[in-house]
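cache lookup: miss for this entity combination. No prior model stored, computing from scratch. Input as submitted by user K.M.:
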Amino acid sequence: MIFNFKLLEYSLSSLWRRKEKNIALIIVYALVIATLGSVLLLTHALKTEAVTTLTAAPEIVVQRTQGGRHELIPVTYAETIEGFPGVGKVIPRVWGYYYDSLVKANLTLIGIEGYQEQLELLEGRFPQSPDECVIGSGVAAAFGPQIGDLLVLEDSSKRRSEFRVTGVFHAASNLLTNDLVVLQEAALREFFAMPDGLATDLTVQVYNSREISTIAKKIAYFLPDSRPITREELLHTYDSLFNWRSGMMLAVFASALMAFLILAWDRATGISAEEKREIGILKALGWETSHVLGAKLREALLISLTAFIAGLLLAWLHVFVLGAPLLVPLLKGWSVLFPTFDLPRVVDLYQLTVLACVTILPYLACTLIPAWKAASSDPDDVMRG
Amino acid sequence: MNADIHNGGPLIRIDEVSKIYHHDKPDEVRALQNISLELFPGEVVALTGPSGSGKSTLLSLIGCMARPTSGTIYLQERRISRLPEAFLARIRRESFGFVFQQYHLLRDVSVLDNLMFPLYPAALPFMVMRERALALLEKFTLSNKQKTKVRQLSGGEQQRVALARALMADPPIIIADEPTAHLDAELSSELLGILTELHAEGRTIIIASHDPVVYRSPLISRRIALRHGNLVDENQAAGAEQ
């Protein structure tokens, strides 16, 4: 125990004696960890957000396609689908996108009738007349209105429509509600000039989750111009999308990691004459190879753990406090047009373990191998250089 | 002192030892060739000879800091020249105290810490190490320098720190390589005084030096001369000196 403390004391003193070099190394090391950590934290947060969003989503969403394009779907399709065994409610939804050139944000306008069951967390109340609306927190932040204020939107014919805000969402699923503007269906139809008898899509409730894919196939069979999308397919799409993007980012940043490892290897294999001499002196004074390696291992662990923790903290601040301004345009893709939203502060321990393994272990090897080479030589040889 | 000294028999026996650096390479150096000698307990032996004669190499081999290319070295009749590294390290820290020509102190570390390094592997309680170090600093009139970094010391002070460090593990054998190389006459004389005290305590001292102040000192009980890696006759050596 005493010897371990003495080794630690020696390691700390050794690091302090070369503080300029070690501080520079820790800074570079921490920046590499922060970069890789940011990608992992952001990807995981986005995936978690997507999963949270879709947990509340309907089992099947049915769209209509014509010539490969999304078209409005006849409300009468709902009656056909409701006739399938195992199907519960089928609700036509009315919604559309609205781009505001002033604040450069895409909003999603929805009719409350198709969504009321999914949207539970609400401050204020749902719209009760055509000139009222409920907005997501991102819309409130981008446009400024709060409960009681007016939200002004322009329709396709440049006509101004005013809606009084009666509620703001603070949902657990920020991705779902962040860019929402909820209106009464009639108001929405008027705003988008959408004819009665048609909806944007249909939501289908399925009683038994094991029958979802069978019912989706039936819908596609009996309504050939329809496109049923199951919740699993959406989850899979999100997963693939973020995995692909994060994979691409990691491939780019892996080069940064490689550069760092080369630097570390260069630093370690080229241990200075002073460090070699010091190892030789310790050996001459009766230290064994294992004692020298113990001291060097402590030095390497102190450096790598300090850099790892500092890098992770930086990544945490970058992603969860600052909103990942350096990575969001690359990772979120088209969703950059959305108003900004807060990411859920979730961390995947498996990813962190992998990150620790790919950064700490190579550094330890880079440090210990040359130290071992020096320490296992005769002290006379090492001191002679 | 740490090790028991056998009475009668040699403390160190060197048998047909050769040391070749860069063996079988173009820059091969034959530093020592078939050296055989015996060193007895309580002796103060001076290894003499010009630079490159093999004095430092012989000291390294005796002190287990290098291994001979051929031949055998015995310490108290135990063959030590082929022992594994961990055993050699233990012998170095328990049996030998080294004073190097260049002192080999850690320059950016305090005097007190430099003294305590040899005792780290012994895992003694910190206070024991500290007390022993402070006692030696007192003995070498360095008490007021315990917190001073070595690089801030004069040459003479560094020499005394190196000597104090050599004594930290209380070894029976002191090995000193050109201990007066960087000292003026007064400091050399002071050093010989310290070595005389150590000899009086019963330690065996082996000094490599080409400084006449050292090898002609009354302290020296035997001189061993080296030329080009070979032992030479004492009279030959004396003739060469003149």
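stored under new cache key. Chain B touches chain A at residues 57, 60, 63, 65-67, 85-86, 89-90, 92-94, 98, 100, 104-106, 108-109, 113, 117-118, 120-121, 123-126, 165, 169 (CB under 8 Å).
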